[in-house]
Amino acid sequence: MNYIGSKFKLSHFLQTSIESTLQKAYAKPLKDSIFCDIFAGTSAVGRLFKTQVKQVISNDKEYYSFVLSKNYIDNHQTLPRAQELLEILNCTQQTPPIQSKIYTNYALGGGSGRQYFSNENAMKIDAVRTRIQEWKESGFIDEKEYYFLLASLLESADKIANTASVYGAFLKTLKKSAIKPLVLTPANFECNKNEHLVFNEDANAIIARIKGDILYLDPPYNSREYGANYHLLNTIALYDDFIPKGKTGLREYQKSNWCKKAKVASELESLIKNANFEWIFLSYNDEGILSLEQIRAIFENYGRYSLKSQKHQRFKADSKRIQKQDSTREYLHILQKY
Ligand SMILES: C[S@@+](CC[C@H](N)C(=O)[O-])C[C@H]1O[C@@H](n2cnc3c(N)ncnc32)[C@H](O)[C@@H]1O
Fold it and tell me: In CATH, what number does 1-76+195-220+258-338 get?
């Protein structure tokens, strides 16, 4: 998924930086360690460590992200019926299109004036989402299959969305990829023997209740709220009775303190203070609300601090700014907590 702040392209930098730091000063083997990805987003970082550590704890305050983590992190054993279930959902005869929440509110045919999806794809999303719920409620599928199917729907719907990249606005005419019919592709996950934990909470609320060895922090860097930019993914995942507002059809969402200049420093300080983890790694780029010096000052109050960095290609949504500057510098702040 093309996601604001995704660390997919920085996987190598993160993995090698974290591993080399630990090799020098950490006595415990990685395979016996608990790794927490507390701002999980697409689960890209938790997935990197899932097969290497004893347990991954994954958390994000957005529900669509929770669904992705329930599949990519929590699911760890093969689902024998995965292919068969996807085939039923993809088949028009077995899962015929219906006009429901997505069609009514986010396709032109529904009369809302919004065009986040083609009429056909919106009806197919409605049909698939409704069928997944029916299967869950009748006991035909279990929780593992439920999250696998929901994650597959979220990823596949995102590919045919009629947006420039995020869901803050839709395009006036259907773009090429949005005309293609929705096809559910499997949201494949890594299998291993270990049990993992997934939460859907505010990071500062959950931090006091969890304990581990390595805490990875990747909070928002600026005022762009994920609940607003990805509201449609929450709507597909929750499929609740929501009220879409205004031209863009935004649903109500909870703002994040990490997106507020006045609150972010105290939010970071309290997270670090309350963390029951020896190692803390924070990703932040050079255009974030917090400066390098502010972060360093906070970290140095709680242990031994160091810093690594790498150049990084900017997220696509910032296309206007790409013309001015191609890349940003991505920092990895490191703390060994006393
Ligand atoms: C930079 S993104 C993380 C990207 C992720 N590492 C990836 O590679 O996909 C920041 C994430 O923090 C989440 N978030 C924002 N405020 C939060 C909060 N107070 N508690 C937990 N998660 C929060 C957002 O929903 C978003 O998914």
Answer: 3.40.50.150
Give the nearest ligand 1 atom to 39 CA. 12
Question: Where exactly are the structural domains of the chain?
Answer: 1-76+195-220+258-338, 77-188+226-255
Atom number in ligand 1 closest to CA 62? 25
- Ligand 1 centre to CA of 60 (Å) is 6
Which residues form ligand 1's pocket by a CB distance below 6 Å?
Answer: 3, 5-7, 39, 41-42, 44-45, 60-62, 65, 202-203, 218-220, 226, 256, 258
For 205-255, write each residue's pLDDT tens digit: 999 999 999 999 999 999 999 999 999 999 999 999 999 999 999 999 999
Q: Could you give the angle at the alpha carbon of 165 between the alpha carbons of 160 and 169, nearest 5°?
A: 95
Question: Which whole-number Å values give the CA distances from 323 to 164, 181, 310, 316, 320, in the listed order?
Answer: 17, 33, 20, 11, 6
207 CA to middle of ligand 1, Å?
14
The overall pTM is greater than 0.85 = yes
> Which residue, among 301, 298, 330, 328, has the nearest Cα to 314 in the 3D structure?
328
User: What is the spatial distance between Cα 282 and Cα 303, in angstroms, rounded to a whole number?
Assistant: 14
